[in-house]
Each structure stands twice: as C-alpha cells, then as structure tokens.
C-alpha cells in the first residue's frame, strides 16, 4: 500500500463549509416534519456562526420554507447558500462527496450509494455528487466515480494516512471480499497508508450496520473518542466493552497507544417500543467549534465535557437531537464537511 499525492483530511482541519439537505414532505421526515425542521434550523444556525452552509433543496418552495425557518432561528444568511437538486434522503454524510485534498486541487470521490446495503430507495442519492459537480459549486475539483459501495459514515480519517472502520459494515456491503482486498481498495482510493478495523461495537436502532461515526472518532494528537456503556444491565455493555478493548490495543504509526476518551451512556430512548440509537460520538466538527448531540439526558453535560477535552480550543455547542434519532441518525450523519478552498 503506497502513499498518494491526494489524502483524506481530518475533520478538524480548516473547512470551507458544511453540506446538508433540508427535510421536506416527500422524505421520510414527513410524519414529524415540523419537529425535525426546528432541529435543522438550530443546527444550521450553529454552523453559520463559524462557516458557510450549503443547503440542498429540491425546489423553490422548499427553499422558501427553509429560508423562513432559518430567519426565525437567527441563522447568518450571508453564510447560507441554497442548491436546488433532487435527493431521496437527508443523510449527506453517506451520500455526499468524500473529498480528497491534493497540492493544488481536490477529488470528489463518488462511491456507489446503495441505501445502506439495499435497505432503502437511493437512486437519486446515488446521483447526488454528480449533480452537485455539474452545478459548478466546487472549485478545482475533479469528480471521480468509484463503482464500489461505501458511505462516508463508515470511515474515519486522521488526516495522516490512517483510516478507521468496522468489519461489520463493510463485510455486509462486500461479503465476497476479504479484509485485505478492502484495505487495499480503501488505501488506493482514499490516499491512505493503512486501515484499522474494529470487529466489535454496535447500537440498537442503527440501520447502517455499525457505522464507525456512531462508535469511535479520531481526534487531534493521536486520540480516539468513543461511545462507552457503563450500565451492566444494558445489552450494549459487553459489546461496547469489547470495542473499548480493541481500541486500547490499536497503535499509532510510531507504535504508541491512542489516547482514549470515553463518552457517557444516555439512558435508553424508545419510540413506539423501538429503541433509538442515541450516540454522543455522532458529533460535528466545524471551524472553531464542535456541535455535540444532546438527548435531554443527564449525561449530556458530561458528553460535552469529554468532547471539549478531546478537541481543546474549540467552543462546544449542544444541539437537541431527539427528533433526529427517530430516523436512526444524528448530527454527523446529516452533514458532510467541505475542505478549505473547494467552494467556487
């Protein structure tokens, strides 16, 4: 596995903005649209304090509705830009561009999006990156289609050549391929030198087959923030404990253990008897700040403190996310950061 000129930046590197898609009545949010629009407005308002927000909308009517919500929430309109484009769903972490940085240009890596292994309709989401590139919102960016299924939430990058992922997810997407084959492909396409795999870790209510961004996240200075479970009576206790042991056994490229930051465990949240995946690991890093999910739980404040310790020097802002986990995701799942310099 050889190094490449292009690399996948760490999320804490300087960003041009954040890409997301506004919910509307033709998405799965229709049943609880008002609640989730309020959350989107709060999220975009928080992001716009620090950087630009690219907001996908399907048409002018949704654009106008989103604009009214953002005006009421106090978003910085000078940092909010709308892009009209079709999409199936709003989880742009998984359908949006995985952007590599080169010396003088970018690569928009457009992996095949299958609706999380064929669980949901995804034909418009699979064409999203191509459509965004055609609208010329990016500068010095080469669109690269990759005929291999991968979602952005399935990988973590430290910006220095290491990718972290889970075997459960990628084996589900590619059961015919070995770990070695997938490692070679990930290194080749993402400009990495190595891939670290986790065997353990899952959350009930997660339909992504254990995306890494709900479980463990790289942080600066060889650190990893991870979702722990200290409740021995909870069905996640043993699995997340085993994941913690795996993380403790990982080594940096120079042979040192990673510094681990354990996130607290929120009490179970149910909706019509279905447990929802309330992960604090699904936070969003922006320029100068980290946006942390809050679930109206006693552990919210401790989660914010852990994230602040792992990302020193950044403001920590809590964003209410109970409305989001009804559809099995949180802040990081909704958003895709765009590296500095890429916006036209």
Characterization of this structure:
- The protein has a single domain (15-339), classed as L-arginine/glycine Amidinotransferase, Chain A.
- It has twelve helices and 18 strands.
- It has 344 residues and is α/β, with parallel strands linked by helices.
- The strands form six sheets. A four-stranded mixed β-sheet has the order 3-2-1-18.
- α1 crosses α2 (60-73).
Chart the SSEs and their pairings.
Elements: E1 15-21, H1 33-48, E2 52-57, H2 60-73, E3 80-84, H3 92-95, E4 98-101, E5 106-112, H4 115-118, H5 123-126, H6 128-134, E6 141-149, E7 156-157, E8 162-166, H7 167-173, H8 179-190, E9 194-198, E10 216-219, E11 223-227, H9 237-249, E12 259-263, E13 270-271, E14 274-275, E15 284-286, E16 289-294, H10 300-310, E17 315-320, H11 322-325, H12 331-334, E18 336-339
Parallel strand pairs: 1-2, 2-3, 5-6, 8-9, 11-12, 16-17
Antiparallel strand pairs: 1-18, 4-5, 7-8, 10-11, 13-14, 15-16
Helix pairs in contact: 1-2
Keywords:
about 25% strand; L-arginine/glycine Amidinotransferase, Chain A; about 350 residues; alpha/beta; about 30% helix; three-stranded mixed β-sheet; single chain; 18 strands; four-stranded mixed β-sheet
Tell me the helix content. Answer: 25-40%
The count of DSSP E runs of length 2 or more, i.e. the number of strands, is 18
How many domains in all? Answer: 1
Shape: globular
Strand order of the largest sheet: 3-2-1-18
Helix/strand-derived category reads alpha/beta
Largest sheet: 4 strands, mixed
What is Rg?
19 Å
Number of helices: 12
